[in-house]
Amino acid sequence: MSASASSLPDAPRVLGVAVPTPLRRLFDYLPGPETPPGGWRPGLRVQVALGRRSVVGIVIECRATSEVALDRLKPIEACLDESPLPADWLWLTRFTARYYQHPLGDTLQQALPVLLRQGRPLEARTLERWRLSAHGQATQAADLGRARRQAELLELLRQHPRGLPTAAVTAQQFSRAQLTALRDKGLVDCLEEPRLASEPPRPKTLLAEPALNLNREQAAALSTLHDGLDRYHPCLLHGVTGSGKTEVYLQLIEAVIQRGRQALILVPEIGLTPQTLERFRRRFRVPVVALHSGLTDHERLDAWLAAMSGRAPIVIGTRSAIFTPLAAPGVIIVDEEHDGSLKQQEGLRYHARDLAVARAHHHGIPVVLGTATPALESLAQARSGRYAHLRLTQRASRHPPAKLELIDLRGRPRQGGLIPSAIDAIRQTLAAGHQVLVFINRRGFAPTLACHACGWLAECDHCDARMTLHRQPPLLACHHCERQQPLPPACPTCKSGDLRPLGAGTERAEESLAALFPEVPVHRIDRDSTRRKDAFGEVLAEIKRGEPSLLVGTQMLAKGHHLPHVTLVVVVNADAGLYASDFRALEHSAQLLTQVAGRAGRAAHPGRVLVQTLHSDDPHLRLLAERGYDALAEALLEERRGAALPPFRFLALTRFESAREAEAMGLAKEAGEALREWLATRGNAVTCLGPVPAPMERRQNRYHVQLLLSATQRSQLHEASAWLVAWLEACRDARRVRWSLDIDPQTLA
Ligand code: ADP
Ligand code: ZN
Ligand code: ZN
């Protein structure tokens, strides 16, 4: 296409702009004042007036007409970009908004780095470097008179003829104001240099360390992946923990980079550790860009732009990294695809794995879902043949994953939650010079505090939940609303002083283990103990040294980490998920148990996994223990089929919440009735269940009610939920009740 003005599309008379509002529609503006160099196109960021505010929006449609009279439309205040945001990014965000029935303006905002939301230029940041000008070189410090600090700054810069970056100057306790003062006097120049090389690196030798020789199963998986590099090719890489999935990713990425393409890797929040990044950076001689919550806004923008321009061949990030634009997408890898953190649980409730599959389909590239414990959705796709099913059943180390040994808690005395046979096993393991992981998925000292005189339990005033007892520091905390209160000196009901902790959390297990095994260190790892930055890394480094020690931890320790010296895992209580009401509870708890068990015996020694339970004859738990996750998953799939639940049906959950119970329930009833009537007249087969109170009805003093839509056909579900959303947006009563729609909900809580 030539760049001459005559080849530009006809100048539109109206621009449909997505602006940051919760409304599900575009706002129309007139073009102006100046036409951007390439003409008006979708994807350009613009500054527009919205009510009394001026906001950054994105042009979505260029049209000839508007439903509003043209003389009532305001002109665009300014166009912020010379060229539009990438088309693939725009496609993905529009797809996301449509699929999740979420306002487009808000979706676009969430998919942009903060600085771009604020209207900063779409350019890699430059590095400022300050250097004496010719005039500055000829000037003596004494000439600056009373400005003593400026004189000292002048002398500092004199010692650095090539100049100093701003950060190096401020590190010496000088301020930016002092720098600009010198610049304004003409003594100092500020040079701007690009922070990143502008060309993608083309190293002659891509690998910085040699690839491993793959075992037979890994080689077979890689060969299938190689065959699908040039098309949409969804694959489930289903390999037991420690089977070398990461090595398969690394060799696949190598092939992708050799073709001049980029790899996007999504990992769970808990998995994006320095160790993971290190593994990728050690292998390749090209930039590996990481997108995680620890970045500053500037770093995030740089990373985003490096991916967008193609300068970064490898992009690794958590959930939201799915929205990173790529110049030359070659593969998307979703590691631990079953992990709950891939689904956003508020606002825009997207699932990054599902978007990864949609995006790969759009680009015509492979997508690899890797896990030891596939989500039932992914397993069903693999069983039906829609996804290639690549199996890795062998561990790279000699020992197969340990089997779960169920041990019955009934009638046994407990110390810190552990029964005598578990304590004996711990003692033997430590005596053999190995490490033990005690897994307990409750942080705090005890799940709650109870009065032994009258049976009172510490409950949160704002939630239908018990408060957790903490000892470090001593207080009661609600893990649902984060409220905290001091420990009561006596029972608030009967004034008895006999208040006792009920059950065990990580702090209590730590305390008991330290008393039982005073000769070894006990490391506790949970959200409380690792609040300080680096604390987790320091403990991990300590553990890796391999001295006999006890690790007490929540799921933070259960996933992803390679703990080569752990040969015994003790699960304090496996029962939480067995009888929970949520339809996915059993699946998630089996995944977690399998991941925890996978920590044992990964290196030189075989491992054991002891699972304490009150229900050692529970059929699901026995199936998991005797035949493993895959067998249980098959059984669960059949149960889901029988119960008409996902993946055999599609769900959308509408949540209503209000400070007044009757208001939430009232609106949900009205919405349900209106929807049922509409479904009947449309002949739409969606079923609408409820309204019913949410499993925890009161949270933070607000009442939660829900309406569940269920369908065998996605298209019908989408049609019905779109109608419901439109109805709710138009409904006057809906303004006092907060409502939200969750397509493909992960939980019905
Ligand atoms: P997963 O991602 O499946 O849990 P990893 O890729 O982390 O497994 O591999 C587990 C361990 O086995 C790692 O220490 C890795 O270096 C090693 N490993 C993987 N593949 C091989 C191989 N083909 N030969 C030797 N060691 C391997
Ligand atoms: Zn009492
Ligand atoms: Zn609470």
TrEMBL record:
Keywords: ATP-binding, DNA replication, DNA-binding, Helicase, Hydrolase, Isomerase, Metal-binding, Nucleotide-binding, Primosome, Zinc. It comes from Onishia taeanensis. Initiates the restart of stalled replication forks, which reloads the replicative helicase on sites other than the origin of replication. Recognizes and binds to abandoned replication forks and remodels them to uncover a helicase loading site. Promotes assembly of the primosome at these replication forks. Component of the replication restart primosome. One of its GO terms (biological process) is DNA replication, synthesis of primer. It catalyses: Couples ATP hydrolysis with the unwinding of duplex DNA by translocating in the 3'-5' direction; ATP + H2O = ADP + phosphate + H(+). It is an enzyme of class 5 (isomerase). Residues 226-392 form the Helicase ATP-binding domain. This is Replication restart protein PriA. Zn(2+) 2 binds at residues 460, 463, 478, 481. Its cofactor is Zn(2+). It comes from the Bacteria.
